[in-house]
Specification:
Layout lengths: L4 E6 L9 H13 L5 E7 L11 E5 L5 H14 L1 H8 L2 H21 L4 E5 L1 H14 L3 E4 L4 H8 L7 H16 L2 E4 L2 H11 L6 E3 L17 E7 L6 H14 L4 E7 L3 H10 L7 E3 L3 H9 L3 E4 L10 H7 L4 E4 L3 H8 L3 E4 L3 H12 L4 H14 L3 H16 L1
Helix pairs in contact: 1-16, 2-3, 4-5, 5-7, 9-14, 12-15
Length: 398
């Protein structure tokens, strides 16, 4: 048994962005550090910190800004979709990026050894596996979506293209070489097993969740809120079209859409075309300001249909007692339906609007709020998630 379990977290996204892909590692680091028998070592190309903790150590990759600049350039080119399939998602380019990251990571792991290394998302996982050949540290790949499927939904990659095959080649290697694969839900677990041949024994469900807050539920405003990315797969356009129907029936409803991303221009143009006020867009909001804002709202919208994903949004909403409206058939929608914590709708603006209006006019809003809170308190909270993860890591390295 370990007196202190040294867990490495390897990531390339900045922790301070507050978006979904940054929020999960931020919360894992924050809550794993509360366990007195855990010491965390975070390997990143950025200057980072997560609150105040005596058991979290940050190690910056590279002796200069090369790694950080490489990350920023790659990310910029991915958002400029024309470069993605033609350059970034060629296997030769991906391998150069992975090899460079692996080299920088290996240098830090030699100086700062850990018992297990958790890599956030696919490219860092591939780099961690490459570094593992020299350091022999076990690698846990934190895979919370199906990369190839996500890129198709964004319009960055075509099914069956060379880019699609390059991504699948990387995923296949991760499935084969990782010691443990963290997934957020049963659906993703099954597709990684059946499509990519991952061993059942390697796959471990580690979902996203929310923090446990206490707010006065009586202070709610008649407000619909969306807070997240503006990517194609988030379907924020469906929400905007639904808002037109909602405001036609009730002009007193407030609408707040927070976020940023490549679809922002298209979404603003759609709102203008529908004669909706530009004030519905609130820009990007820091999480410490967002949480109280969520707690004062009436309905949280989750219009995405990214079925393999493990979105944080619904659990953030639920954590403050905010009832959720989401799309039928998604695994998180099943949780909302089973626990009477909101409404689900078919993928149609009018139907989505009707579901929201039903909640806005519900006399059971207090019950729905309490049910929402209970989902997070009983299962989907970060302390419980990190407790289970720590137990799995001890089992793996013992």
């Amino acid at each position: 048994m370990f007196e202190i379990l040294k867990i490495g977290i390897f990531l390339i996204n900045p922790l301070n962005e507050g978006l979904g892909f940054s929020h999960r590692p931020y919360m894992l680091i924050k809550y794993l550090s509360l366990h007195k028998d855990v010491e965390l070592h975070v390997f990143t190309p950025h200057n980072e910190e997560v609150g105040k903790s005596q058991r979290v150590y940050f190690h910056r990759l590279g002796s200069n800004k090369f790694s950080e600049n490489l990350y920023m350039i790659v990310r910029y080119l991915i958002k400029k979709r024309v470069f993605t399939s033609n350059f970034i998602y060629r296997l030769i380019t991906l391998n150069v990026i992975i090899q460079r990251l692996a080299h920088s990571l290996r240098e830090q792991l030699v100086k700062n050894p850990v018992d297990i290394l958790q890599a956030e998302q696919d490219v860092p996982s591939a780099a961690a596996i490459l570094a593992k050949h020299f350091t022999e540290v076990p690698v846990a790949a934190d895979i919370h979506d199906l990369w190839a499927y996500e890129e198709i939904m964004c319009g960055r990659v075509d099914y069956g293209s060379s880019s699609y095959e390059a991504i699948n080649s990387i995923i296949q290697n991760i499935m084969k070489e990782s010691d443990l694969i963290l997934v957020g839900n049963e659906l993703l677990k099954e597709v990684l097993r059946s499509r990519y041949g991952s061993k059942h024994s390697k796959l471990f469900i580690s979902p996203n969740g929310g923090e446990i807050f206490r707010f006065n539920l009586a202070k709610r405003r008649k407000r619909i809120i969306y807070a997240g990315n503006f990517e194609k797969y988030e379907n924020v356009d469906l929400l905007i079209e639904a808002v037109k129907y909602i405001l036609e029936k009730d002009r007193t409803v407030e609408v707040s859409i927070f976020g940023k991303g490549p679809e922002e221009g298209n979404l603003r143009r759609l709102a203008k075309k529908l004669s909706l006020p530009n004030s519905i867009f609130g820009g990007f909001i820091q999480r410490k300001k967002l949480i109280p804002f969520l707690a004062e709202s009436w309905v949280g919208a989750v219009p995405t249909r990214k079925k393999y994903a493990t979105p944080i949004k619904p659990f953030e909403y639920l954590s403050v007692g905010l009832p959720v409206v989401s799309i039928k058939g998604m695994w998180w929608s099943n949780i909302i339906e089973e626990n009477n914590a909101g409404k689900t709708s078919v993928f149609d603006p009018k139907a989505f609007a009707e579901a929201i209006l039903e909640l806005l006019n519900s006399s059971d809003i207090d019950l729905l709020s309490k049910n929402a809170l209970n989902i997070v308190r009983k299962k989907y909270n970060w302390y419980k998630i990190t407790e289970e993860l720590k137990t799995k890591y001890i089992e793996l390295v013992s």
